[in-house]
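Onboarding guide, step 5: your first structure request.
Type a short instruction followed by the sequence, for example:

Predict the 3D structure of this protein.
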Amino acid sequence: MNKVSMKNMSKYIIAITLLLLGSIKIKAQQTQERPNILWIVSEDNSPLLGCYGDKFATTPNIDKLATQGVLYENAFCAAPVCAPSRSTLITGMLASSLGTENMRSEYPVPGFVKFFPRYLREAGYYTSNNAKKDYNTIDQPEAWDESSGKATYKNRKPGQPFFAVFNLQVSHESNIHKPLPSLKHDPEKVTIPPYHPRTAEMKHDWAQYYDKLQTMDEQVGQLLQELEEAGLADNTIVFYYSDNGGVLGRSKRFIYESGLNVPLIIRVPEKYSALAPGKPGSRIDRLVSFKDFGPTVLSLVNVKVPAYMQGKPFLGKQQAAPEEYAFGFRGRMDERIDLVRSIRDKKYRYVRNYMPHKIYGQYISYLWQAPSMVSWQKAYQAGQLNQDQSRFWEPKPTEELYDVTTDPHNINNLAGKPEYKQVLEKMRTDNRNYLLQTKDAGFIPEAMLYEIAKTGSIYEYARTEKYPLANILETAEMATTRDASVLNKLTERLNHQNPVVRYWAVTGCIILGPKAAAAKAKLNALLQDPEPAVRIAAAEAISGLGDETKALPVLSQALASNNLHARVQALNILENMGAKARPALPAIRQFASLAKNDKNSILDKRFDYDIRAAQALISKLEATAQK
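The system replies with structure tokens like these:
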């Protein structure tokens, strides 16, 4: 080969090398150009922050973040408690649709449902979670590169984009269980919602809560400072929000603004300003919900949102049109059973109570560790409360309607006012249609869910002929009317071939109480029903008709069941029976003793809600016996 050829070959090799290096550099730049996403998630706090107008709060770091980003005025968690809300967050699916709405359960989801960070990881993102999961279903650890108390985006490869979550637990409700002797916020100056009495304990708990919010704000500031010092602030979209409202009684766990409305601030760096929903310091009134958060992150980083997800992106190239409503749900909360659904537009909140005979303030052992709860209940029992403060301790109305713009504390129920009839009827219909559209699985009694989940997902079960939701909803709505004129229809459905329909027909008789006497013969027959949830409910109905002698054996027998939630259901009924449940005390003690000695093979080692309910009931019955 001559010198000219050699020279040309060398030029050719150099050119190819430069092209390859350039290509690699472009790809590296493209990788780096994808935005990082940082989630800062606080626990158990409503928008009690300075940037949301709370002048008593000490939250300078979050307030500053709000001036740099966009503040959402209408952001809502899916359920007013962590686990079902986090289930919704991580899947982009409503927990009420997946069958994961009841607090701390591990019912499986369909195989096609992936925790959304997995899609980011597959797209080249480093995913880290520090450290809480609590997804209320079987874990999918492959969603994360790391998930631990030490997890951080700092462990990623050079130039690798990240999705990082930091959970701040200092504002969690457990942090008010023990009163602190010295507080930064003055209990005498703290603002208290009108449904709370100003007991000494209530004032102290509220002030201590504001102290914890201040500490949480300091932690937010530290995380933002670390991002700045790492030189990543200009490449990172920051979300700050809370996992549910809270934290004092009638907020966390309850279907009101105080339980469902959460703070949300999103800061988008200037280089990604095209992705921002507004200018820095602006406020957005668009309704956004937890089911939308995962799809929104995927949209921001240009990863295709899976078609099965129910959430809709509210940012990014795949942004969807705003929805009319934010949907909320309440199922079993720890050891207490309830069922509530709610929809919220920009002006009104509609609430449908499917178990209106149960009071709001059912005893929950964990919630009652707060001194404020004990003082509130004592004040009610002493007759020291006004109507707004007393309502928590009384049976619920079937429907509730609140104008949130004039009544942010949701204390003035408009459901019975003629001038709001049109609004009520529309939202009632829209709520029903939404339940049908999403195949809401929450109407299946949990003793049934517990068994269904052993062989498959509840989501898939709810989409078979075994779950005729339209018929079930019709029955549940009749059941909750408190109208004796529907008794004949309910009685007919006591013989329905579907156990969920039978369950709701029985529930209607429970709610009617003595007015359901004409159905007693059929209710007696259901004490032998093959479905445990139905025969336990029938025992409650029979007890309500004054025949505890037939009801108590069924309830006592349920305590020996291998079904955790059959036991929880029976214990809830025995709790509501009060002193009339005393003949069952030996059976309750036997169960509690076996549980305490850990010799009972029927126990589900993952959950202790039956044990909590049994211990509370024993204490109550022993106290009444002494009187």
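Each response can be followed by summary notes, for example: The first helix runs from residue 3 to 33.
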